[in-house]
What does this fold into?
Amino acid sequence: MAGFSRDSQGRAWFGGCLITELLSHPELTTPAYWYDLDGIGAEADELVAALGPGGLVAYAVKANSAASILRVLKDRGVGADVVSGGELRLVLQVGVAPDRIVISGVAKATSEIDLAISAGIRAIQIESPEEVLRVAARAQALGTRARVALRINPSVAIDAHAHVATGHDKAKFGIPLANAAEAFALVDQSDSLDLVGISTHVGSTLMTPEPYVSAARVVCELAIARRAQGKAVEYLDFGGGFGIDYGRGKPERPAAFAQAARTLQREQNLLDHRLVVEPGRCLVGAYGALVCRVVQPKITAAARWLLIDGAMNDLLRPALYQAHHRIEAPDTPPAGEPFRIVGPVCESADDFGSHVVSKQAPSHVVIRDAGAYGYTMASNYNGRPLPQEVFLAGGAVLHHSPRPDADGWLRSRLDA
Ligand SMILES: Cc1ncc(COP(=O)(O)O)c(C=O)c1O
It folds into this structure.
């Protein structure tokens, strides 16, 4: 598995390509997301193998929705966890089989529920008793039955930024345990719903499987109770959240989470249920980089700024969750005094932090581990076009999006 690496001469590589060579490619510009499709494929292979033949890896499309990435994952037997009608239409068009797709989301629009029912996906993962009634009503209106799962909020707190912890009792996500009995009863009373799964997702950037297993145990207990009533569900979905190494601590490998899930399933005597996991970040995070040009240094009494052409509109994670990304120069290993690396957006939060890159200001920098929640959160803020995307495979550029279109933004605002 590749992603970013340095050779013995200190030159940086990404996806089997020498970064300095690609920087002179005539059709590539900056800021740009570069993706290593081979690395993504290898990461998926390892997780699919660890989960075993009866399991389903449902990739959380919100992490990165590029069709080239979705195709690599689909070809490895990976399904999809989507959170909108747009993501659902996308994965269907890419050719992901409906029975490998689940949809989550706390406030699904009626049109999204209708689309999910009509497409015949594995399940609509319902997040409140009120939503049970909404989905039942839509199935009835469409004259059909809907396959549903209940997403349970197990009241498990995780050690992560508040914005990525979703399984605690004050989160908007999932059905609190206290309301679970009511939700199960409403499903059972409906003539138009088939309860096929129980799911959970406690949050992101988990370093070890323990909190994951604690939440999964709650799902197992509910599944055992259903089976005892003669109403066994088909699958148990323990969610995603497997962390990656952002340079400040190595989490356990995704395979360790999958193995912990399988061990729990065996211990709980639930081998008659299918196992589903919903990882996003761990499949793509390390295999994306945001490549930026250095505009200029700015040395003041207070700080040594390095002003780059990438900004918070391209990569929101640092501004949104105070996330730290490693930043390196492509032609030299880290050296010299740190620079405070910031973008052009008119916000103090447009700040990628302090980094040792090189003695002199380099021509370019590479923001590492930007493959997840990067491009999918990008915006046109400050009238900036979306960054270019470049897909690498076999040590070469497979294809890339057109150069960013600044006129597109201008036209859209003139029409507004
Ligand atoms: C319901 C659900 N499943 C899966 C994920 C994927 O999480 P991660 O990318 O950390 O694996 C998320 C992320 O927010 C989520 O909300």
